[in-house]
Q: What sequence folds into this?
C-alpha cells in the first residue's frame, strides 16, 4: 500500500487520512452549501437584473461541479469515524497518533492500523460517493487554475496568468504582486485603502501565504 502511495504521486489518501487536512476539507463543505443556498434564494429575491445575473452565474458554477457537496461531506464524516475507531480499537495513545500523523506527511507512510480504513474508503465509501457524482467528470474536471499539479496544462496556464492564491481570482499583468519565496504563490499587493474595502477574511489572510510563509513584495510591473 505504501509503495502504491509513493509511486502514484497522489496526495489523496494522505490528505483524507490525516486529521488536520480532513478537518479542513470538512470545513469547506459548510460555506459551499451555504453559498449554494444563498444564490438559490437570491435569484428569487433579487432586486435588480445585475443582482439576479450574479446569482445565476454562481448557480452555474455549482451546477458544473462534478462532485456533490453533501455527498462529499458525508464521505468525510464517515472517514472521520473510521479513522477514530481504528485508532481507538488499536489502543493508540495521543503521542503515537501524533507520530503516525507526522509520518503520513513527512514520509508518506500509512500506519498499519489504518490499513482496514484505507480498504473501506477505497471500496464501499468511495462507491457510495461516486454513485452521487460522475467519476468521469471528477477525473477530467479542469483544476489547472488552482496550480495544485505539475502537469503541462497547469504549467502553461500559470506561465501566462497569475492567480491570487488568497482570493482565487485571476490577476492582470498590471497588478502589483507579492510572491511567496517558498511555494511561489502570488497575491495582489493591496494598498491599505484597497484592503479596507475587502472582506474581513481577506484582511486576515493577507499577512502570510497559504503555506504560512511571509510575502515578498515584487517590483511594480513595467508600464
Ligand atoms: Zn507560500
A:
Amino acid at each position: 500500500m505504501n509503495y502504491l502511495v509513493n509511486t502514484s504521486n497522489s496526495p489523496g489518501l494522505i490528505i483524507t487520512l490525516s486529521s488536520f487536512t480532513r478537518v479542513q476539507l470538512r470545513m469547506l463543505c459548510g460555506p459551499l452549501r451555504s453559498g449554494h443556498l444563498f444564490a438559490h434564494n437570491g435569484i428569487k429575491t433579487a432586486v435588480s437584473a445585475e443582482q439576479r445575473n450574479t446569482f445565476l452565474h454562481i448557480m452555474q458554477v455549482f451546477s458544473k461541479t462534478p462532485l456533490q457537496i453533501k455527498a462529499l461531506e458525508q464521505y468525510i464524516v464517515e472517514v472521520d469515524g473510521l479513522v477514530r475507531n481504528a485508532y481507538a480499537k488499536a489502543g493508540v495513545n495521543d503521542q503515537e497518533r501524533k507520530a503516525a500523523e507526522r509520518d503520513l506527511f513527512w514520509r508518506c507512510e500509512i500506519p498499519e492500523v489504518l490499513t482496514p480504513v484505507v480498504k473501506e474508503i477505497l471500496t464501499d465509501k468511495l462507491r457510495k460517493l461516486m454513485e452521487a457524482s460522475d467519476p468521469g467528470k471528477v477525473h477530467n474536471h479542469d483544476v489547472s487554475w488552482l496550480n495544485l499539479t505539475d502537469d503541462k496544462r497547469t504549467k502553461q496556464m500559470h506561465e501566462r496568468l497569475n492567480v491570487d492564491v488568497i482570493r482565487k481570482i485571476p490577476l492582470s499583468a498590471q497588478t502589483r504582486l507579492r510572491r511567496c519565496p517558498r511555494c511561489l504563490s502570488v497575491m495582489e499587493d493591496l494598498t491599505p485603502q484597497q484592503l479596507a474595502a475587502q472582506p474581513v477574511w481577506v484582511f486576515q489572510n493577507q499577512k502570510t501565504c497559504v503555506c504560512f510563509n511571509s510575502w515578498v513584495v515584487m517590483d511594480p510591473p513595467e508600464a
